[in-house]
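Retro notes
What went well: the complex prediction finally ran end to end.
Inputs used:
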Amino acid sequence: MPLVKYSTPTDLKEARFTGGLLARRQQIALDTTIPATMAKTIETGRLDAFRLTWRPGQPKKPHVFWDSDTAKVLEGMAGALALRPDPALEAEYDRWVDLIVSAQQPDGYLNTHFTAVEPEKRFANLHDWHELYCCGHLIEAAVAGYTLLGKRKLLDCLCRYADYLVSYFGPGKHRGWPGHEEIELALMKLYRVTGKEQYLELAQYFVNDRGTEPHFFIEEEQTQAGGSWHCTQNQTHAPVRRQFTAEGHAVRAMYLFAGAADVAGATDDQELLQACEAVFENVRTRRMYITGGLGSCFAGERFTTDYDLSNGAMMYAESCASIALVFFCQRMLNLTGEEKYADVLERTLFNGVLAGISLSGDRFFYTNYLEVDENLCCYNDGSPVRKEWFDCSCCPTNFARFLTQMQQYVFSVGDTELRLHLPVDVEIRHQFANGMVARLAVTGGYPYHGKVSIAVLEDGEYTLSLRLPGWCRNAVVEVNGERVYAGAGGKYLPLTRKWSKGDCLTLGLEMPGEFIRCNSKVTTNAGRVAVMRGPVVYCVESRGLSGEVRNFLVDTDRPPELAPAPEGLPSDAPALRLFGQLEQPDETEELYFVGRPRCAPCTALAIPYALWNNCGPTNMAVWLRTTGASA
Amino acid sequence: MPLVKYSTPTDLKEARFTGGLLARRQQIALDTTIPATMAKTIETGRLDAFRLTWRPGQPKKPHVFWDSDTAKVLEGMAGALALRPDPALEAEYDRWVDLIVSAQQPDGYLNTHFTAVEPEKRFANLHDWHELYCCGHLIEAAVAGYTLLGKRKLLDCLCRYADYLVSYFGPGKHRGWPGHEEIELALMKLYRVTGKEQYLELAQYFVNDRGTEPHFFIEEEQTQAGGSWHCTQNQTHAPVRRQFTAEGHAVRAMYLFAGAADVAGATDDQELLQACEAVFENVRTRRMYITGGLGSCFAGERFTTDYDLSNGAMMYAESCASIALVFFCQRMLNLTGEEKYADVLERTLFNGVLAGISLSGDRFFYTNYLEVDENLCCYNDGSPVRKEWFDCSCCPTNFARFLTQMQQYVFSVGDTELRLHLPVDVEIRHQFANGMVARLAVTGGYPYHGKVSIAVLEDGEYTLSLRLPGWCRNAVVEVNGERVYAGAGGKYLPLTRKWSKGDCLTLGLEMPGEFIRCNSKVTTNAGRVAVMRGPVVYCVESRGLSGEVRNFLVDTDRPPELAPAPEGLPSDAPALRLFGQLEQPDETEELYFVGRPRCAPCTALAIPYALWNNCGPTNMAVWLRTTGASA
């Protein structure tokens, strides 16, 4: 039985959003995020860095990670062009590609910093200098340009660079591990579109050599021997296949294990897959915020220990880490077919990822706090307001490429099976290897609404597997009015039929607003509840409350009631009215005192977490106090 | 009206503990802490550093802060000898002094690192290299040796060093600010015992020049211009007299303002005093843990923002910071006579300070967490277990000198007034300038017990001012059986009498176990209570509970009940029995779930916070969840 069970079609045009949340967010990306990040890439000198004309003393010195930003925006441009032809954008795309390709050295090497600034330091410090990370992002951009637009120029260029890496790194050649992983999953993409085994072998080398003895970073003298913090920080504390917990820098860890999952699948490496599964389970059950945010500590932007998930000033939950978790989930879902991966994927996508970008499409969070209060010091980036750009601008550029390609998470396919992961409003057309075509129109407004209709648009015989989400306790599936399933979620429901044009399926996912508790080992959430409806995590902003959210106590005996979205937020995203008490501000200025706070009845409007901070600065909380801690 | 209202007698032998908490802790210091820290000082090479024989390549290279550790232990040895003559210890004391003095350079300079290791870098980096900090601690040790033991050798030596500083720093000479303050309060001590104005003037210079423009640390090129974090970190973001909040490194801030208060008092500088008062109020009402711990963030060991007082992994509350707060309080109490300074002093002494050292006297906390759980990552120093020593061992050495001299906090005097701050078990003998003698025996077991007896042991006419603590809502004072006061605390009660031998006063301080709430702006404590009895903060250890303290919910409708101290803890320290519920551990391994935790009735034994972690490793919490958050 092959390790890889399902695959995501290479041609992302097989799914096209037709309305609702993801269509809206993608439209904003096309209209705003892509132009905004392109402008920043140009304005900051990141694009012109490829001219290689920087000289000492000049401004805009190419930074070691700049190429990755340019590559990610370029990948986003490819995604945008695939969704909506735009001659001006395409011309600009071609200009960027020409510029990038022009910077390639005769031996295939391609990096602005280590060509224009410190050419003598090529591959001298893999631990710190993001060289292979930049290469990985250029490869991803090249693969996107080829698969989405059919453009080969950048792909050929990056193949030459990859060939150079193949000639340089590996057994019998130079040892080397990237300090910031990314090259692994990129080489696997390159392998898949080119079929060239050497890219698979190099990815395999990077995954398999990492963390083995002798320790390359100690040999490279970038890490002190015994510096366990540094080793865990970049996942070199043990061979990758001996890593069973998520450690260190969250983005790096997820990029690594996404790449490792690719390698495991392509090489039928059961042992490596088991490590991936263990790391995922550690994330899912111990180290993941309810939003799919990852990284409990701003210092090191990293995982810490099991159940250490504080909500405020300390936390990180970098936007890129949630995006990376989606990558990892997608690969594991295809490898195993297990529904739990889709649960984490959609939790992360609808909450942790989308919170990172404003509704306007041009403001970004680096850190995604679950609690914001003016009395909490935000240690890493000052006030929690989305910003246009960052010196280290990985998050904005990640959104540029993520949002324009997120239709890839809607479904996967097997030989004669189409697995619908996200029943969002979408049109799907997939042709199986046997020639049979699945063509479907999904509507209903998921994830904000739970009544999904699936219209069959073309005759065909295949298995349509509907995901019944793990959060759903009561799912009902009907085919042409006939009930074929009623029960709990947490699985895929395979429906094998000769489907006819005009067939209609309905998927009813009961989706009440609910109070969610946290494992009490997470001390910070003890006695608190979060509010979810389906896969959507809610929060309460102080804005609109008659007091501060820190003083609001929700009465968990009164279920949340659906309410219209407040002004300024998309009207299809229902709010939830919560009932409870508001503690009255202390009249004393004392810090510590004897006495009981007075309370008054109060309602609060909870909104989807991904939409917070779109109507002006405000305090906010996901985990709410309750009127009775044990009630 | 002079700025300085009261003073602490120079001769600490005027008060002598006779029993109870402070006597016990001091006895442990004599028996264990002093020998243990002496041994470590020798073993680590800190003492032998004064031989100036270190050569490149050898181990035990004198570190820039080593001299301060040796000085603090030496100061502790002087304190110990004053309490209990010990010829062997005295010989060792003299040997240390000889060794230290032998390292003095012909020009008076005295520093092991910048003589033996980097002589060319003398005063080259005041920002980072602790040179003046080391000098300050040597001065403090010298003053203690002189005032407690009458030994002049080290004092004369440090006067020569101070004279050298006077010739080097100041207006028209070199500018300079210490990166780590300490020299200011030390020079003020030297000024007080020698009467030499130049030491006052140099202290005044260090306080008044600090933070003025042009910014010395920018001139010194140790701080980036505009690096506001660095400027606040060492209190150079504004002139000291324009600082009204407690910023940056907590120990540095408190040492600075202790010295600034000294300078304000000695120079009748009302403006400087107002800055000290503002900083103190900011600490007291916004930035102080309930234990008197200071510093909410391990990164920078620093103050953060108002009401940012998280309890666990993030916090610092360095033992030295609480010790420094006691220093600051003592000075402000003498300057102003206001009772609130004594409140913070005793809160800090009985809780934040004493928690930092084990009952065995040879184990120390650097960080004093208010919440410990195995699921919280302790970012700064790993597991929360007291340790014998640290590479940077400021805390253990601070205990060596603090514990042997803490009788200085018991009372202050005015012209004909004795103000009893801490009614602990103590014998006091003070002779006023007019020849009148106050001789008193205080008993009752304070702070663990609230019925204090004060026996007059000698005839005399003076004002005895009894402190009625701010935490006490019902204080009763009787003189020879006659009630002279009944009412709330928060003041001093002056009793002017011709006192006769055999007079007996009783001070009844009602001291119920109480639930304390925190200003709700401290989001982390919202809905939680702490338990105090008098000035003593309690905590609950998981050890002894049938579950984890994170799952214990206290019922605040049931007052704490006195209970015998648990085995292993001093029998005079009552425990408090709390009633409530214990949440049953989740049966699911899920991180997030729908459902309500089951509860079962449960009692918990709270013990004084200062005694926690003396019976083996355990989880612990000061701020407890409640059965009803709004009840």
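What we learned: The first helix of chain B runs from residue 20 to 43.
What to try next: split runs per interface for comparison.
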